[in-house]
């Protein structure tokens, strides 16, 4: 909920194959403000899209929040672990954005999600990272008086 009482609703734009039987893909980008700082939203597979991150940056986002639930069969989950960590780093670095990724941890039916929630700064540096098996709260103070850092 926004400070004015309004709500924003974001619908995932990049669906996985099995989701297309249940959901229509979204088309609208969502930006919200906190203390005069703009942030964008992505869900799960959206992180694979450099274009979406670039569009959010173009709309004035200083950072992007990614909500994920990377549940796969055990072997596939291990195989995709590094990719699912690398993509938020790439999106941060490509667009000079903060990326705040929250990923599920644990099992669901016969699948597993290996966590790895993270906060990445605009230089692509992981400044906070959660483990693979336990829920954790990541905290990071943004210095909003400075622009996003550049190398």
Please sum up the structure shown:
With 151 residues, the protein is α/β, with parallel strands linked by helices. The protein has helices at 50-58, 74-95, and strands spanning 31-34, 37-43, 63-68, 98-103, 105-108, 111-114, 118-120, 126-129.
What does this structure look like?
This protein is an alpha/beta fold and 151 residues long. It has one domain: Nitrilase/N-carbamoyl-D-aminoacid amidohydrolase, CATH 3.60.110.10. The chain contains two helices and eight strands, in the order ββαβαβββββ. It has helices spanning 50-58, 74-95, and strands at 31-34, 37-43, 63-68, 98-103, 105-108, 111-114, 118-120, 126-129. The strands form two sheets. It has a six-stranded mixed beta sheet, with helices on one face. Strands 5-6 form a two-stranded antiparallel sheet. Strand 3 (63-68), helix 2 and strand 4 (98-103) form a beta-alpha-beta unit. Helix 1 runs parallel beside helix 2 (74-95). The longest helix has 22 residues, at 74-95. It is globular and about 45 Å long. It starts with 30 loop residues before the first strand and ends in a 22-residue tail after the last strand. The mean pLDDT is 92.
Give a topology summary.
Elements: E1 31-34, E2 37-43, H1 50-58, E3 63-68, H2 74-95, E4 98-103, E5 105-108, E6 111-114, E7 118-120, E8 126-129
Parallel strand pairs: 2-3, 3-4
Antiparallel strand pairs: 1-2, 4-7, 5-6, 7-8
Helix pairs in contact: 1-2
């Amino acid at each position: 909920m926004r400070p004015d009482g309004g709500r924003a609703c974001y619908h995932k734009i990049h669906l996985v194959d099995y989701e297309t039987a249940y959901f229509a893909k979204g088309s609208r980008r969502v930006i919200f403000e906190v203390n005069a700082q703009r942030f964008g939203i992505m869900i799960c597979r959206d992180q694979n899209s450099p274009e979406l991150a670039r569009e959010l940056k173009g709309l004035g986002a200083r950072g992007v929040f990614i909500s994920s639930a990377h549940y796969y069969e055990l072997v596939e989950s291990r195989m995709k672990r590094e990719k699912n960590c690398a993509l938020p780093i790439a999106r941060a670095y490509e667009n000079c954005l903060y990326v705040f990724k929250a990923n599920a941890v644990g099992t669901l039916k016969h699948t597993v999600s290996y966590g790895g929630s993270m906060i990445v700064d605009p230089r692509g540096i992981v400044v906070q990272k959660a483990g693979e098996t336990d829920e954790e709260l990541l905290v990071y103070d943004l210095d909003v008086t400075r622009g996003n850092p550049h190398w």
